[in-house]
Amino acid sequence: MNGIRSLGNKIAILFFLITAAAFGVIYFWVVTQPESSLEERRLSDLGAVAGAFQSTVNGMRVENARDKDLEQQVRGLADITGSRLTLIDWKEEPEGRQLDKRGLELTVRADSGEGPAVPGAYSLAGRAVRSGKTQSGFGSFQGEDIGIVAQPIGPKKNPQWVAVYSRNFEEVAETVSFIRGRVLWACAAALLVALIGGWIVARRLARRVRRVERAANDVARGHFNREPLPVDSEDELGQLTRTFNAMQQQLREVDIARKEFIATASHELRTPIFSLAGFVELLQDEDLDEETRREFVDTMREQVERLQKLSVDLLDLSRLDSGSVELHTEEVDLAELTRSVVGEFRPALRDHRTELRLDVPEEGPLADCDRERVAQIMRILLDNALRHTPAGTDVTVSTHRENGSAEFTVADEGPGLPPGSRDKAFERFYTGDAARGAGLGLAIARELAERMDGKLVLDDRADNTAFVLRLPTNGSRS
Fold first, then answer.
1. Which domain holds residue 245?
2. How far is Cα of residue 100 from the mean position of the Cα atoms in its chain?
3. Would 15 be classed as within a structural domain?
4. Per-residue pLDDT tens for 212-259?
5. Per mean pLDDT, which range of 167-181, 198-212, 294-308 is the poorest?
6. pLDDT over 90 percentage in the chain
7. Which pLDDT does position 435 carry in this prediction?
8. Per the confidence metrics, is the pTM higher than 0.70?
9. Which of 33, 150, 238, 321 could form a disulfide with 128 if both were Cys (CB 3.0 to 4.6 A apart)?
């Protein structure tokens, strides 16, 4: 994605605008405000100078305006203070006024400078005479900004004359102009660095985001990368990448499980269906004798039962995977439930010529569980013991309490599991003998046990195979 819509370009431009706004504020405060502040400071310094030399000015002789000594004294003091010094005498006019100082006639007695007096000097001198206090202000002389301080000399209520100090602020303007130029160049350089740096950082961030985006598009199309995305930082994007890798791994596992489930389920369904189709064709042969026909029908009944069991198991797996299985926990007497479920298997035990030993107490142990789901697990374990053992194999069913848990055990004296099958016994669709089941029962039983905070384990000993269901009892739940 190019142009202004690119995330990298947007971040770079945003970074540039923020930097430009920050430097704009800096320029306003550093360049605009200091000019007036410097002038005020210089004017204040000029007033301080006037106060420092007030006693010196009071000692001057002002009897004659053309007195060369007075002129020399004024020029000498002007040189010391670094300003133009003008001595102004005053008197009231017109005649007859009673010293109200409203109309004043101001006369220059001595001046360290040449040419006309600084504009504003007379007005400030008049104000100083009337108020008896030092006055300050600004003026303009020959195109330059001037700072003026008028200091009354003599008695406070009736000063004899006024000393006017004036100093141009040309160096202030030059200083501000120098600062302004430097700040402008610095701002331009900083903005260029900010633009380039922001673009580089934004491109790196955008590249990392684009990498996650491409991987997400691959996942959306069903293509899962075998190698996880590199996590090259611990920031938010690094955490996002790590989370994406975990999500991709889970989705890949789910996709693999889904494909395996579909393939295996299709195979499990295809086998009995093809078998039934073959037997139907054979039954259409009119020359079959009654005994053979009966044998075919019995075999077809077994395949139909296998299909029925497989469909029920697939439905249970689907409900477990979707989380729609509802559990109703209550206190259940395992001994009573075991006797009830074992009673359902009396015909199957008789057909299998199996002697079942029942080792359960009169009452208990009591387990906190869902009664119907525990009965389903018991049926799966008993059916598994009869289906995968030779005829006549003895089976033992027992219940007892062990280490704070209620246990139900089904043990048979058959040949045991094939080598290497112990770790796969609870995997979906795994079976040591495909002709005798689809391999879903134990997977469903373990899932149901875990949903009830229990556990289904295999105790594969040398002389028998035992499946143990452990369920929590009252007070043992965490």
1. 236-319
2. 78
3. no
4. 888 888 888 777 777 788 877 777 778 888 888 888 888 887 777 677
5. 167-181
6. 4
7. 44
8. no
9. 150
On whether both 304 and 332 belong to a single domain, the answer is no
Residue 45 lies in a domain: no
CATH of the domain at 289: 1.10.287.130
Tell me if 279 is assigned to some domain. Answer: yes
Regarding whether 251 and 150 lie in a shared domain, the answer is: no
Task: Single out the residue in 135, 152, 168 at which a domain terminates.
Answer: 168
Read off the CATH number of the domain in which 84 is found. Answer: 3.30.450.20
